[in-house]
Design brief:
A seven-stranded mixed beta sheet has the order 2-1-3-9-8-5-4, sandwiched between helices. The model has no long low-confidence stretch (mean pLDDT 85). It starts with a strand and ends with a helix. Helix 6 runs parallel beside helix 9, helix 7 runs antiparallel to helix 9 and helix 8 runs antiparallel to helix 9. The radius of gyration is 42 Å and the shape is rod-shaped. It has 344 residues and is α+β, with helices and mostly antiparallel strands. The chain contains ten helices and nine strands.
């Protein structure tokens, strides 16, 4: 079986370390009817299959619907009560900075009067540090299964902080890219918005879970310390949720600003293209005008240069100066016309 660790705790200390899950279940059966009621077993599982969870469900009277959820996973954070058993779904998260990716895992916790079963579907987070912390605090561990749930919650919520820091750093970089004119920033904004949504899906439902747990310990003076700890976790969840909501709004505003800047840059580019086109048009006008002016004397010269034997004005004494004058007059007329129109 995929048992990571399992032990029986009595009076806030590890009492037994069975070699197998069967040994732990046998120890629980032996404790039935024991006068002290502070003993419990903590069984930690990693990626168990349906057969393994069905065995636990039979021995510990776990609710069938909750076991089905634990097998299939992909549940939203929630707290459900089934007679003497509570079922809690938690979504730990961690940030992969190289990929700008928020990875979300899933932890299921079954709580009974004398047992806790934690089911993980990912290597992260490693709950061995949570177990070590509780074993180093006998007063807290003596509070039973609820103390385990509190410690797991506290670890998961603490792990949200690096995620928030990673997202904040990436948003700062995005702001620099936006005002630096990076054309690929829109895609990055959208991807980071999706990661913020993933964090919100993991964090926001925990508020309802904490409200339910706090209501159960509000009037329990024996567990006032546990109540205060849960209240502190609730505050951290609220802060993380607010940060995620602010990130989502900020990314939306950044996307709008980027769209406006892109539009502005496109307008400036179109204006420059229009100015260039106008300048080219003016040059074409000048070239065309000079070509027309030069074409007039060329036309006259070509006509009089054909040297036909029978051609008007060939024998005329003033024919040559007349042709030159006609060339000058035609060119001057065209020059004045084009100058008046502003083409020269």
């Amino acid at each position: 079986m995929t048992v990571v660790d399992n032990a029986v705790y009595v009076g806030g200390a590890r009492d037994r370390e069975p070699d197998s899950l069967d040994g732990t279940l046998a120890a629980l059966r032996e404790r039935d009817g024991t006068p002290d009621d502070d003993g419990f077993a903590w069984i930690g599982l990693l990626r168990p299959d349906k057969a393994e969870l069905d065995k636990l469900a039979h021995e510990l009277a776990l609710p069938e619907l909750a076991v089905e959820d634990a097998v299939n996973a992909h549940q939203r954070p929630k707290l459900e009560r089934y007679d003497d058993v509570e079922f809690v779904v938690l979504r730990p998260a961690w940030y992969v900075d190289e990929d700008e990716d928020v990875q979300v895992g899933e932890i299921h916790v079954f709580l009974g009067q004398d047992f806790v079963v934690t089911v993980r579907h990912a290597e992260t987070p490693d709950l061995s540090s949570v177990r070590a912390r509780l074993e180093g605090d006998p007063g807290l561990l003596a509070l039973g299964p609820r103390a385990v749930l509190y410690a797991v919650l506290d670890r998961i919520v603490d792990d949200y902080r690096p995620v928030v820091r990673g997202l904040r750093n990436d948003i700062d970089q995005i702001e620099t890219q936006v005002f630096g004119g990076d054309p690929s920033v829109s895609r990055r904004i959208y991807q980071l918005s999706r990661e913020v949504i993933e964090l919100q899906r993991a964090v926001d439902p925990l508020r309802e879970v904490l409200d339910g747990l706090l209501s159960e310990t509000a009037d329990d003076h024996a567990r006032i310390g546990l109540h205060r700890g849960l209240r502190d976790v609730a505050d951290h969840i609220a802060q993380t949720s607010e940060s995620a909501d602010n990130f989502r709004q900020l990314l939306g505003n950044i996307l709008q600003v980027n769209a406006a800047l892109v539009g502005q840059r496109q307008n400036e580019e179109m204006r420059r293209l229009s100015e260039t086109s106008l300048a080219q048009g003016e040059e074409v006008k000048k070239i065309s005008s000079w070509a027309a002016i030069l074409f007039t004397p060329s036309l006259i010269g070509a006509i009089y240069g054909m040297n036909f034997e029978h051609m008007p004005e060939l024998a005329w004494t003033l024919g040559y100066p007349f042709a030159l004058g006609l060339m000058v007059l035609g060119s001057l007329t065209l020059f004045l016309v084009f100058r008046k129109r502003g083409w020269l």
